[in-house]
Design a protein that fits this description.
Hydantoin permease, 0% strand, mainly alpha, binds 4-fluoro-L-phenylalanine, 18 helices, globular
Length: 456
Amino acid sequence: MVQNERSNFGSKLGVVLASAGSAVGLGNIWRFPFETGNHGGAAFILIYLACVLVLGIPIMMAEFYIGRRARANTAGAYRKLAPGTPWCWVGRMGVLAGFLILSYYSVVAGWPLEYLVEAATGGFAGKEADQFIDSFNAFASQPLRPVIWLLLFLIATHLVIVRGVEKGIERSAKVMMPVLFILLVVLAVCAVSLPGASAGIEFLLKPDFSKVDGSVLLGAMGQAFFSLSLGLGCLCTYASYFRSDTSLPRTAFNVAAIDTLVAILAGFIIFPAAFAVGIQPDAGPSLLFITLPNVFQQAFGSTPLLAIALSLMFYVLLAVAALTSTISMHEVVTAYLHEEFKMSRRKAAVWVTLGCTILGICCSLSLGVGSSYTLCGMTLFDIFDFVTAKIMLPLGGFLIALFIGWYVDRRQVEEEISNHGTLKVHIVRLLLFVLRYVAPVAIGIIFINELGLIHL
Ligand code: PFF
């Protein structure tokens, strides 16, 4: 086994919370609801759940294997496990995907900060549904304010990263994750008890399979990869800091379960709320930001203090969830530069933060002054989201499945997954079957369908 002289997470709980912190983020609370809304509701959710179970958990275990076995950043890990082969390009593509996602993700991560200020200063008072839509559009298309929040967010991420793995990443996740969960439950209870919420609950629970087509499948698969932080080596990088007695299968199940629970809870906040105030569920990326202030206002407007307290709670929650995820993307790129180019961690982190700031500003401007620059009808922001979530992550997952399923020796997989025989694991055969056949075929079919070569 490769000797480990690098930093480690200090406890098993820290491992689960840090990985779940990476997984749980805007993907669950912002992206999952709008993708569900765009793709027709309950049927999309069922396909999403199938993707998590059949593709997500096995590929997560594969990433854990690669990271902990090699004890290196994602590109270095492939070099160690498959020296002299082109496999290290899978790792490098992951680093690029992490960098691109971090850039546009930080733009959205900054939005809750604006809403936090707005809520604290009573800015929601007296507004109607339409006005919330207008004020979101006016804010997101402004050149300056979103950029200031983006910068603040990247600086916060940077500060955690330079504190290192145990003191920075693990300690922050241990505080932030439980707070997040409690806040979500409180808000879901409030949302489902709003008058008129039942239509939203029905939208979430009654599947209509007549709306399912290839783009729904691609959407659900992309969302599963995005939400579980898979396909770019993020969990592979975290696994390189796992202790050698951490159970990889159990951690993968726990992380997937927590992530899915949070996404469903977010659905139970957004849809009942949207239907209660008459907002269409297919409003796209703005869904979360136009729905929630409306609810706080309409449902609790007669008790302004409660409205302010709940909205503050929600935006803090969003920012916290986003921060634990941006930390993990930043770590992928920082660890790569630090280990592969022998830069100090601090210097590597500065380069990542600077690079993401520049790309992030371009993405933010593409929603306003730069919105006329489009490719295939997509702004730069949409292109980053499409190329990463719908192409790079599933492609990364496809290659990771092939790597473990066909390249790595089966006995090595067994050895690592069972912690050198100290854990009884009965799933290695099933895992390898899925990684060899099921995952590559499923991802392949969805891709080919999207390219228009076959039609599902
Ligand atoms: N999983 C995160 C979320 O749901 O918000 C987003 C993300 C984090 C994607 C880390 C990819 C990644 F490597």
